[in-house]
UniProtKB/TrEMBL annotation:
This is Sodium/glucose cotransporter 4. The chain crosses the membrane at residues 25-44, 51-71, 77-95, 102-119, 139-165, 210-229, 278-305, 317-338, 350-372, 379-401, 421-443, 543-563. It is found in: Membrane. The lineage of its organism: Eukaryota, Metazoa, Spiralia, Lophotrochozoa, Mollusca. InterPro entries: Na/Glc_symporter_sf (IPR038377), Na/solute_symporter (IPR001734), Na/solute_symporter_CS (IPR018212). GO terms for molecular function: D-glucose:sodium symporter activity. Belongs to the sodium:solute symporter (SSF) (TC 2.A.21) family. Coiled coil: none annotated. Keywords: Membrane, Transmembrane, Transmembrane helix.
């Protein structure tokens, strides 16, 4: 009862000066209704009854949808809160992350994705399994990806959305987090690499990457600059230095720069437009969260669940993926209090620091896997292990000592207090890269026949790839189990038309579809697979996207020089 009264009082206070008004709530309600209608339309119109349809959208997405999807997946509520907050704390330098992202997107479209499409994989851990053989790399990457999602993407986005609600409605943080738990949206989307894997062909992959790269310039002007302005307009709140004062302003003694963007919206925008901005924040939150939800479901079901249920039906994998997402949300909410106190209360720095504990060895591995054919499984695995140990040690020290509150002296050891996390990531990348190369050179190479269409240099090869012995044995085991289930009629699905109405609705909502009896000859199946893994490009469009890429590189260099 007391919690209810507190929430009611907070809502009443929110309608005072600086809070949201009736018009704002009307705008938000209209937005939520439109979201619900769009989700229902997508439920019945899109192909979600198969793994490729659900996880890769049928591989039929056009360039503008790929580009918009890449940008919306990358720019979520965490970006609005984190980028603006770090901009308020330290100035324009944080925009370098977004300008660097411009070049990373071009590398994605021109170097990485062509190899991923040629290899015919659904996930990055699956690529490692095909590239190196064995399963330990695949399982390690799958588990690590899920851990990173919990520590960074999901928990950070939920916390960022909670900050917006706290500034608008003055609710306690745990009430806000509970509201996110109860109102989770189940819209299927994918993140970054998997977004591009859903593209129609290579022209649309590169076109989408170019569009997203152009859009990456926007955060400098629409997020970082407003954060800096907020610090000037509200120095005693956004720039608070006393821990007790910070606790009163934003419930975080480590600092209140995270409220820079929400504070600007709530205090300065007129009624009505506040609702539009809050709706935009909800859109950013749902876009980034649902992208991670589906990507994590993809990784868990394909790279982990199928190890234990090798003959699992597609319906089973779809349901398991959705249930697993609920578990991830719970773990992320539990982690939020730790996130809140880390890196001096700056959300964006926290995200980059945690990513820096684990990501550099992964980058080193994928660069070597794609560009250096000599890289083998032993070098890849033990290079990752060296990087993992170093990253975990740094993470334990960072969270063990914590960050000093506003105005407090930094008494942490020199290796933590003086070695910036960005400098640490560079060192970690170099160590992991060198370890992988050294161990690879000291161990036997992989046969060339195993690498067909799995590296940059073999992506156009028309030769038949030879599977690794363990890979071939696994495929035979799966075929045998599926055949056994068919013989026992366990693999057959009853006709949904004779089921109760409520169960038909549940199947439709969860993406279930009656399996279609499509008999394909071996030649037709081979031609279909060849089409899905084709990386050929039309000469005219290839020139067009390459010229655009050069323009982008020049434009990015100009921005670096102008604002640097």
């Amino acid at each position: 009862m007391m919690a209810s009264n507190s929430s009611t009082d907070g809502l009443g206070t929110a309608f005072s000066k600086g809070g949201v008004g009736t018009a704002d709530l009307i705008v938000i309600v209209i937005y939520l209704i439109l979201c619900m209608l769009t989700g229902l339309w997508a439920t019945w119109k899109t192909q979600r009854g198969s793994v490729s349809g659900y996880f890769l959208a049928g591989r039929d997405i056009l360039w503008f949808a790929v580009g918009a999807s890449l940008f919306s997946s990358n720019i979520g509520s965490g970006s609005f809160v984190g980028l603006a907050g770090t901009g308020a704390a330290s100035g324009i330098a944080v925009a370098s992350y977004e300008l660097n992202g411009l070049y990373c997107l071009l590398l994605l479209g021109w170097i990485f994705v062509p190899v991923y499409i040629a290899s015919g994989v659904y996930t990055m851990p699956e690529y490692l399994m095909k590239r190196f053989g064995g399963q330990r790399l695949q399982v390690y990457m799958a588990v690590l990806s899920l851990i990173i999602y919990v520590f960074t993407k999901i928990s950070a986005d939920i916390y960022a959305g909670a900050i917006f609600i706290q500034q608008a409605l003055k609710w306690n943080i745990y009430v806000r987090l509970l509201s996110f738990w109860q109102s989770r949206q189940c819209t299927p989307c994918l993140v970054l690499v998997q977004r591009t894997l859903a593209a129609k062909n290579m022209h649309h992959v590169k076109g989408g990457s170019i569009l997203a790269a152009y859009l990456k310039v926007l955060p400098l002007f629409i997020i970082v600059f407003p954060g800096m302005i907020s610090r000037v307009l509200f120095p005693d709140e956004v720039g608070c230095v006393d821990p007790d004062q910070c606790r009163m302003v934003c419930e975080n003694p480590a600092g209140c720069t995270n409220i820079a963007y929400p504070k600007l919206v709530i205090e300065l925008m007129p009624t009505g437009l506040k609702g539009v901005m809050l709706a935009a924040m909800m859109a950013a939150l749902m876009s980034s969260l649902t992208s991670v939800f589906n990507s994590s479901a993809t990784i868990f079901t394909i790279d982990i669940w199928k190890r234990f249920r090798v003959a699992a039906t597609e319906t089973e994998m779809l349901v398991v993926g959705r249930v697993f997402v609920l578990i991830l949300i719970g773990l992320s909410i539990v982690w939020v209090p730790v996130l809140q106190a880390s890196q001096g209360g700056q959300l964006f720095n926290y995200i980059q620091a945690v990513t820096g504990y684990f990501a550099p060895p992964i980058l080193a591995l994928f660069l070597l896997a794609i560009l250096w054919e000599r890289t083998n499984e032993k070098g890849a695995f033990w290079g990752l292990m060296v990087g993992l140990v170093i990253g975990i040690v740094r993470m334990a020290l960072d969270f063990g000592y914590g960050s000093p509150d506003c105005g407090e002296e930094d008494t942490r050891p020199v290796i933590i207090g003086r070695l910036h996390f960005l400098h640490f990531t560079i060192l970690l990348f170099v160590v992991s890269f060198v370890a992988t190369v050294v161990i690879t050179v000291l161990t036997p190479p992989i046969k060339k026949s195993h690498l067909i269409r799995l590296t940059w240099w073999t992506r156009h090869s028309e030769e038949e790839r030879e599977e690794f012995p363990e890979e071939k044995a696994r495929h035979e085991k799966v075929k045998a189990k599926i055949a056994a289930k068919v013989d026992e009629e366990e693999f057959k699905v009853s006709d949904t038309r004779i089921l109760p109405a409520w169960r038909r609705f549940l199947y439709a909502f969860c993406g279930y579809e009656q399996p279609k009896d499509v008999d394909m000859s071996q030649e037709e199946e081979s031609a279909h697979k060849k089409l899905l893994t084709s990386v050929r490009e039309d000469r005219r469009w290839k020139w067009f996207v390459n010229i655009n890429a050069l323009i982008l590189i020049t434009f990015g260099g100009f921005l670096w020089g102008f604002f640097g």
